[in-house]
Write a structure and sequence with these properties.
Elements: H1 7-19, E1 23-27, H2 33-48, E2 53-57, E3 75-76, H3 81-90, E4 93-97, H4 109-117, E5 122-127, E6 138-141, H5 148-158, H6 167-180, H7 191-201, H8 207-215, H9 220-232, E7 234-237, E8 242-247, H10 249-254, H11 265-270, E9 277-283, E10 287-294, H12 300-307, E11 311-312, E12 316-322, H13 326-336
Parallel strand pairs: 1-2, 1-4, 2-3, 4-5, 5-6, 8-9
Antiparallel strand pairs: 7-8, 9-10, 10-12, 11-12
Helix pairs in contact: 2-5, 2-6, 5-6, 6-7, 6-8
């Protein structure tokens, strides 16, 4: 594990933060459990050194994350862009968590890029995605780490503030930890990951409740949508060890889909025996969005980056195709499978 939190670097960062009057914490578009969990955890951490901060999100997150301690004061750019852009404009320190390029922040991206070019604003990226863009003053990046929550935890240790992790902050960190590690089942999990979990549980946080709030809060419409998607829209290509699930905007509306309702569909497809590459494709108002997953040596990050304007991790990535139809994207995806046939052979 790379030591990105070198003592001189983190000491300087802590000094800058403690001197700042305005600190803003941002994350990527369509924030997931790691993005919002890490952001709120950092806010709790800064509060322990009497540094007030504002969490600003590009847009909303799923309802199953609405219990996170501190989330009531989050600002959303898609709801009030002027307030959010003003927050960044006035900030002395801006944290970019769980993303490594301004474009990943959606509508908030131009304000992030402006902050990065503005004299007097110190921009810090804390992230675990590959190939970061060079736009920040400080890059704390480790692609081998399974979640940004783990990086916030390591920053906390580097700041010698382990004892300052209390139950609320621990719940936020644990949310990011379990959502981005698939409840500790992904290959990115290390002994240090479990050591972190043990520390968080030691604060008195209710890990069982956190897990239940995230994974046991399915609406009836969501269950019916999942049943429909897997029963009617799942395409399996055994010769390429691949599976695709796709949903149109009309289909999503038919089941009253909300943010987060399609979470996990791509993993269900990947769980089919013999499947090494799975993709969930859904139509949005202005684009077609994709979630790509794989096992073993097959890199979905490369597929996303090369063909679908995306990126991410080796075995988990995302993409987006503005202006293209759902059928076009799915057809293009199917057409690519033969070119990956050799890479998708079973590894035994």
């Amino acid at each position: 594990m790379e030591d990105v939190f070198k003592q001189d670097v983190v000491a300087e960062l802590k000094g800058r933060v403690q001197e700042a009057q305005r600190v803003v914490i941002t994350a990527h578009r369509s924030p997931d459990g790691d993005a919002i969990g890490s952001s709120l955890a950092l806010q709790h951490l800064l509060a322990r050194v009497d540094v007030p901060s504002q969490v600003v999100m590009p847009d909303g997150y799923p309802d199953f994350l609405n219990w996170l301690p501190g989330q009531d004061d989050v600002q959303f750019h898609d709801v009030d862009p002027e307030v959010c852009e003003s927050s960044l404009l006035e900030a002395e320190v801006v944290f970019c968590l769980d993303y490594n390029a301004p474009s990943r922040a959606g509508g908030l991206g131009p304000a992030v890029a402006n902050a990065a070019s503005q004299e007097g604003t110190y921009v810090v990226v804390i992230d675990h995605h590959q190939q970061p863009e060079e736009f920040a003053d400080l890059l704390l990046s480790d692609p081998l780490t399974g979640s940004t929550a783990e990086l916030i935890y390591r920053l906390t240790l580097a700041w010698d503030m382990a004892d300052d992790i209390q139950a609320d902050m621990a719940s936020c960190l644990y949310c990011g930890l379990i959502t981005d590690t698939g409840s500790f089942r992904f290959s990115s999990v290390t002994p240090q990951t479990h050591a972190m979990a043990a520390h968080l549980l030691g604060t008195g946080m209710d890990h069982s409740k956190v897990h239940s709030l995230i994974y046991d809060a399915c609406r009836l419409d969501q269950i019916r949508l999942t049943s429909y998607a897997l029963g009617q829209k799942l395409q399996v290509f055994p010769e390429y060890h691949s599976a695709i699930v796709s949903l149109s905007l009309d289909e999503l509306m038919r089941f009253n889909a909300q943010k987060g309702d399609t979470e996990g569909l791509v993993n269900r497809a990947l769980s089919i025996e013999g499947i090494r590459f799975a993709v969930f494709v859904k139509e949005d108002v202005d684009r077609v969005k994709m979630s790509l997953r794989s096992t073993g040596s097959f890199s979905v990050r490369d597929v996303a980056a090369d063909h679908f304007n995306g990126g991410g991790h080796h075995n988990a990535a995302g993409g987006a195709c503005p202006g293209e139809s759902l059928d076009s994207v799915v057809s293009r995806l199917i057409g690519l499978l033969p070119s990956y046939a050799a890479q998708l052979q079973d590894e035994g």
